[in-house]
Amino acid sequence: MIDNQTVQYIAGLSRLRVQDQDSSRFARDLEVILHYVRQLEELDVKDVPATSHVLNIQNVFRKDEIAPSLTQEQALSFAIEKNSGHYIVPKVIE
Amino acid sequence: MEFETVIGLEVHLQLNTCTKIFCSCRNLFGDQPNTNVCPVCLGLPGSLPVLNRKVLDFGIRVGLALDCEISPLVKFDRKNYFYPDLPKGYQISQFDFPIARKGHISIKSSAGDKRIGITRAHLEEDAGKLIHNDQNRSTLVDYNRTGTPLVEIVSDPDLRTAQEAYDYLTALKLVLSYLSVSECDMEKGSLRCDANVSIRPKGDSKLGTKTELKNMNSFSAVRRAIDYEAKRQEGILLSGGEIVQQTLLWDDARAVTLPMRSKENSHDYRYFPDPDLVPFVLDPAWVIAAREALPELPTQKLSRLVEHYKLNIYDATIIIQDRELADFFEACYLIYPDAKKIANWLNGPLLKELNERKCSLHDLDLLPAVLAALIEKVETAQISNLAGKEALSLYLNKNGSLEEIIRNKGFLQVSDDQQLLTVIDEVLRDNPAAVAEIKSGKTNVTGFLVGQAMKKMQGKANPKKLNELITGRLQNE
Predict the structure, then answer these.
(1) Does any CB of chain A come closer than 8 Å to the CB of residue B180?
(2) Which residue of A52, B96, B102, B169 is most buried, as measured by CB atoms within 10 A?
(3) Phi, psi angles (nearest 5°) of residue B27
(4) Is residue B123 part of a domain?
(5) CB-defined contacts A:B, below 8 A
């Protein structure tokens, strides 16, 4: 059962701000989605391996060979703030 | 009540491939910030990761060296968390199909060999480096390290003391260092260790609540942190409290563990298969080939050195601590086949030079033939043992060839009978009292006369020869 608290928890993980008045609507929608997906539980999937990829290809590799990287200027060109070759972000200590 | 500590370790090992795990940027630490980055490791929209084949090979090698089963199916998953060291908002790691699992490694404990289980080893990407600036409340981000290939090796909770944890790390590092897949340097961050620690009443089989310790930057710091943490937990339980499951940072200067300021929910990683990376199926032939290509591992090398060269365990154990040193030993033996003498020189003077210079053997520019020649000169008494050590030091300081150094420093010992006898006769004449004492049976006074003769020869006489000649002279009189 998805309640408002769960909606706020998921929103927090996604760094989304969800207004309280929207919570119950999202809770309802998520509940409907889960209900739909839950139909799978009626099937016997004992011998069906979990799908980890939808493409039927495997073993795609790259050789361990160096190719040019971006220049520091290019890398930092889309930074909102930068200093001495670094990106600058608000101070975060985990 | 008596408690037992239960420890499991997670070791992160940076792999020394040329390029990163999922892109072709150079995998090199210490360059100018944000110069080894590209759209893939910066997580720019639309970029796609492609696995470096060598990373998979290295992962298999590590797994096999730890006696793991290698998974026939390898896939990658996203571990989601929000922190600026990861530009994508997730780390590509392995969740339910790690490349290796169910291995083990042996450590020496007071009760003999103890086998420590390896739960799993999996591949993942390293994160970027953050530098926190207190003054303007900002954080500097360098993404050069982002995408550096890592193997994470997780032990079973088989360790019972901080010392065992230390021994496990030492044994693990030794094996890993033989594989040539990493620098294995904890100070430089190419090997990192976190510890899961809990305690339980001795005899209980149920695990207690664990805490995770981070931020230890040496093996001895790991040992100190675990010791501290076990005592801290014991204090809490004995006073009727409860252990809180949390991540703690070790503060080595203050020797305490402190709670990491942790955002709520940060451990809800929501793993799911990375749709950008297709699965990898390992042909058994691939794994067999990797097994055959494994180098001789430390325990095998130890037995071989003991059996083949008749070295004692003590000498052999020191030599195998460094694969290069072991190779050097064998190369010297081919030229000068006296294993014990070589071992003495390697484990004594040579290791001393390495420690003093804080460098490794390949930095020294020393050929096995040079050391073998030096040992031979000492053994044939062309130079004294002391002069030999000094000659080695001078040679490593680039003071010329061994021959030049010995000549220029006047290290050559005089072993010529005629030359020595002339001096000996002078000494015997000048010291009649000592001569009389020796003749009356006090043979240990001979040493005094040897010393006198050596003084006259300015230290360049072969002492053994002097002793023989003096003894001979006095017996003949």
Answers:
(1) no
(2) B169
(3) -100, 80
(4) yes
(5) 136
Q: What is the pLDDT of residue B264?
A: 46
Instruction: Give the gap in angstroms from C-alpha B225 to the nearest C-alpha of chain A.
Output: 20
The pLDDT of residue B30 is 82
Nearest CB to B279; choose among A52, A86, A88: A52
The answer to whether residue A60 sits within a structural domain is: no
Parent domain of B225: 3-286
- Best mutation site among B16, B24, B47 for testing chain A: the one with the most A CBs within 10 Å? B24
**Tokens 């062309």 correspond to what residue?**
B382
Q: What is the DSSP letter of A41?
A: G
Strand-by-strand arrangement of the A86-90 sheet: A82-83, A86-90, B138-142, B129-133
Return the amino acid letter for B198.
S
Q: Is A10 a member of any domain?
A: yes
Final residue belonging to a domain, choices B386, B408, B430: B408
B285 touches chain A (CB under 8 A): no
**What is the CATH classification number for the domain harbouring B456?**
1.10.10.410
Q: Could you tell me if B255 and B385 lie in one domain?
A: no
* Partner A contacted by B398 (CB < 8 A): no
| Count of domains forming chain B | 3
- Same domain for B274 and B333, yes or no, is no
Do B451 and B390 share a structural domain? Answer: no
Is B291 part of a structural domain of the chain? no
Q: Are strands A61-62 and B51-52 parallel, antiparallel or unpaired?
A: parallel
The structure tokens listed for B225 are 């942190």
In degrees, rounded to 5, the angle at the alpha carbon of residue A78 between the alpha carbons of residues A75 and A80 is 120
Q: Are B309 and B281 in contact (CB under 8 A)?
A: no
Q: What is the pLDDT of residue B123?
A: 98
Number of structural domains chain A divides into: 1
Q: Which domain holds residue A17?
A: 1-43
Task: Please compute the mean of the pLDDT values over residues A74-78 and round it to a whole number.
Answer: 94
Instruction: Point out the residue among B18, B133, B141 whose CB comes nearest to the CB of A64.
Output: B18
Is residue A92 assigned to a domain? no
Contacts of residue A54 in chain B, CB cutoff 8 Å? 275
Q: Based on the domain organization, do B70 and B179 belong to the same domain?
A: yes
Report chain B (477 residues): mean pLDDT per 10 consecutive residues: 94 97 93 96 95 97 97 94 90 95 90 92 96 83 96 97 96 96 92 96 92 93 96 94 91 90 64 93 94 95 95 94 94 93 93 91 90 89 85 88 85 77 84 82 82 81 82 76
Q: Hey, is the C-beta of B273 within 8 angstroms of any chain A C-beta?
A: yes
B216, B313: one domain: no
